[in-house]
Amino acid sequence: MEVQSPQERFAKYSRETIGGILHRPIGCYTLLLVLALIGLFALHVPLTTLLPRLNLTEFLPVLNILFAALFGWVLAGLGVCLLLYLWLKFKPAAVVVTLMLAILWGAGLARHVRGEGTLPIAGAVIFLLSLVAGGAVFLRGLYVVSGFLLPLPSKGHRDKVFSFLRDYISHVNFPAYVVVDELHEEDKVEERVPGNPFSRLTTSPGFILTGCDHAVAISDGLKFKGAKGPGVIFTGFSDQIVRTIDLRPQLRAFHVEALTKDGIKIRVLAFTPFKIDARGRQSRLGEPLPYNKGAAFRAIHAQKMEHEGGEKKQCSWDDLPRMIAKRTLQNIISEYNFDDLYGPYQPGGKPPRKVIAGRFYEQVAAELEPLGIQLIGAGISDLEPADPQVYVERVRSWQADWARKIMLKQAEGQAEWLRMVERARAEAQADLILNLGRQLEELSTARTELRPEVALNLLVSILDELMRQQPTLGRLVPGETLQALLGIRKAITE
Amino acid sequence: MSLKWYKDNLKRTLLTLGVILLVAVALGLAAEVWLRSAETAPEPDQAGLASIQAMLSLALASVRIVLPVVGALVAVPLLASRLFYKLHATKDLKEAHDSLNRIVFGKLGFGPYLLVKEGKIASGEDTPARRIGGPASLVVYNDTAIVTEQYGRLKRVLGAGFPQLERFEKVWEIIDLRPQHWVYEVFALTKEGIPISCEADILFKIDDRFQDAEGREQTKTPTSEAPYPYTEEAVLRAATSKWIREPDREDPRIAWTGRVVIGSVEGLLRNILAEYRLDWLIAPPQPDQKHPREEIRQRLEEGLQDGVRSVGAKILNVEIGAIEVKARDKEIAQQLSDIVSKQWVEAWHADWEARALASRVEGEAELLRMDMARIQAQAEMVVTLTDALQSTVVSQGAIEPYILALRFVEALRWMSYNTYTREFMPPEAMRTLRQLQALLGAEAGTPAEQR
């Protein structure tokens, strides 16, 4: 609990009592009447002392009567305020004061009834007339106030409310209900004014109050009286609320488990926004949320008794879309193979999920329409395999594809290496040939005749030189080749 | 204290209750005067205190006569308040009386009032103005709009200012006019059915577009008085687009903001993502192509602009976050994450390996390998040439230098005609080879000609 400082507590008290006095009718009018009383007194005293001095004593009785009327008016007003305050805040004190005033008035009447005074009968009649006037004011007052008790746009139903008020005072009224915006159906209807719907003594209707977003279905048990409201709904003998009807769009989201054509179980979140059919009418200012009463009637009558494990309960109209949608979606999904639900190799067009969602909407809307329920737009979430391990398998398949790509990438690297080796080979050959070319050029410069022996000698010497320059080459060249080379050299020399 | 807030109540009270009481008291006084006049002679010379006493006695006597009327004036509001208290579930009888008085005669003062700002009731939630409705005052800040109901009907759309609620007029829905920013994680499946998630970052507000007299679409400009412009139609649409869900849910109501995000963004983004394969969603863009995320963002924004109009909203900006492989099931999500991360690392590694192989050719270490390759090539060459000479020596039996030289050059030519080698053979080497053949007077053509 929040701890308040003394200053805060005083400020709160002040706000709720003295500070708020001007905003509360009893406090405000009491204050005004007290001020008026003081003002009258302040005016009367100087006037009553002034008039004799001015030799105007003949005006004094008139003045007194005038002031007596004003004083009486203010005192009566104060009496109303104080008595009302006591009844509202301190009932026992109010009872005592009311009794005292009744005794006071009764004593006045009794005095005349006993024949005291010069005009006893007239006096008694005056007192009794006052009682009649009080009664008239009471009845008329209640009638007028009845027009303000309920949120009614016109005074056309004032008689009904007045008679209800009268029956309420007599405790023979029908009940009065208020539909509140609670979450659960059982909490939505509050019996604010208790009563007996089967009362034979009552002459007035009961009523139900709803906001602009709720209607109610009413039945007397023998006859369904239809969907009524929003606003103030008057009820008759044995009328009961069958159930409330929320006119706002309703959304039901639920998981559906279904088997594909190839027997794989999938799980999908389906959602069905809907409302009582309004025949396409949109919400507008000056009107309640739109709905069609015939559609509401159909929706209420479509409520089924559900049997679950030996127990039965009535499903609500707003459960119907879920029940129908579940079956419809299972039927649609059973027409597809598991792999077709995603269409990974489908070249174009709508994805299968979108197609399924479209069919789902059309079929559910068609089934709900005769039940008076308008589907605003149904849809489905992802078509997920019931066993999420399938996801892992899919990702592994994707991984395999990537492994292939990686191998290709690696092969590209290898190809590059091979190209490099071939280049080295070409360079080696080119070196040999160019070297040969250079030596031939030298022979040409020395004007030596190129005989085959010279050319052969030159070629073999180049091979020799190559072997000398690259000692590593000796390790790579097979022994037989070296032997053959030596043999050729020897043969040429010989 | 302004008198205007009291004027209506004072006037109505005086003209009804005041007049009734005055008439009753006047009649009672007349009756009392008449009764007294019959009993005693008037004393006109009474003055001062005696006069005051006489006047008070007269006044009290007249009040005593009209006590039933006074009682009626107490009983009527009391009984009516009792019913009102039960019917409207006020805090206590006094609040019921105050409320009923306000409904019948009008407000006394500015209150009760509701302070509405930042899209909610900031003050006065527990007042009768909230539970029962008007007459009451509203203080509405310029960041909020209100839709009211009265007599079971939608009444009006109220904006910034100090509007007055009429009898039984209640606040039905409150709309926050400020731009709304939502970051929402959307779970989807790729074209091949792999679960992914993507954050949608949406900025939107109540629609401020309207059609002018010529039917052209215009947008209201923000001003200092109305920094968050709106149209009444959009506010009404937003207010009436609330979705009611199952009562046991954590969020049993979805307001217009939720409908934009959950209803529109989630569905639309899921549809778009389902058209892409995982690699397309994550792969780096081609040089001439937009990044898939940017394309998805644009498609989402275009789709939303039309879609959210029905709930009275207008999209200001759409961004989407990173797309990652993710499932709702935590365990599976972890497995997927592990596989995909490993795969990305491998792909990255392979890419780098390929690049490294290429770059190593130009590196110093690779030069060594290049030398090795060259030596290898030289060795092959020596072996090939020697084999050629050796086979000639063996087949001829005697050494014919001309034949041996020719055989040598031919072998060289054959080697140079290798498809792979020829690609890298410099043109001068080929020229030299032809020259050498010419010098030896060879008649042989190219290997192809010989074939």
Q: Nutshell version of this structure?
A:
Chain A is of the alpha+beta class.
Low-confidence stretches of chain B: 442-451
CATH-assigned homologous superfamily of the largest domain in chain A: Band 7 domain
Count of helices of chain A?
14
How many individual β-strands of chain A? Answer: 13
- Mean of the pLDDT scores of chain B? 82
CATH class of the largest domain in chain B: Alpha Beta
Low-confidence stretches of chain A: none
Largest sheet of chain A: 4 strands, mixed
What does this structure look like?
The complex is a heterodimer of chains A (494) and B (451). Chain A is of the alpha+beta class and 494 residues long. Chain A folds into four domains: 15-146, no CATH class; 155-246, no CATH class; 250-387, Tetrahydropterin Synthase, Chain A, CATH 3.30.479; 421-493, no CATH class. In chain A, 55% of the residues lie in helices and 15% in strands. Chain A is built from 14 helices and 13 strands. Chain A has helices at residues 6-16, 25-53, 60-89, 91-113, 120-146, 158-169, 185-188, 293-301, 320-333, 352-368, 389-445, 452-469, 471-476, 479-493; strands at residues 176-179, 189-193, 206-209, 214-219, 224-228, 232-235, 240-246, 250-259, 265-276, 305-308, 311-314, 373-375, 379-385. In chain A, the strands form four sheets. Chain A has a four-stranded mixed beta sheet with strand order 2-1-3-6. In chain A, strands 8, 9, 12 and 13 form a four-stranded antiparallel beta sheet that branches. A three-stranded antiparallel beta sheet of chain A has the order 5-4-7, covered by helices on one side. In chain A, strand 10 and strand 11 (311-314) form a beta hairpin. The longest helix of chain A is centred in the last third of the chain and has 57 residues, at 389-445. With 451 residues, chain B is of the alpha+beta class. Chain B has four domains: 4-99, no CATH class; 110-176, no CATH class; 180-212 and 225-326, Tetrahydropterin Synthase, Chain A, CATH 3.30.479.30; 365-450, no CATH class. Helices cover 55% and strands 18% of the residues of chain B. Chain B contains 15 helices and 14 strands. Chain B has helices at residues 4-39, 48-65, 67-88, 93-105, 128-131, 232-240, 256-273, 278-282, 292-307, 330-362, 364-396, 401-416, 419-424, 427-439, 447-450, and strands spanning 113-117, 120-123, 136-140, 144-150, 153-158, 164-165, 170-176, 180-189, 195-206, 209-211, 217-219, 243-244, 253-254, 313-325. A four-stranded mixed beta sheet of chain B has the order 2-1-3-6, with no helix packed on it. In chain B, strands 5-4-7 form a three-stranded antiparallel beta sheet. In chain B, strands 8-9-14 form a three-stranded antiparallel beta sheet. In chain B, a hairpin with a 5-residue loop joins strand 10 (209-211) and strand 11. The longest helix of chain B is centred in the first third of the chain and has 36 residues, at 4-39. Chain B starts with a helix and ends with a helix. Mean pLDDT of chain B is 82; it is low at 442-451. The interface between A and B is large, with 179 and 184 residues.
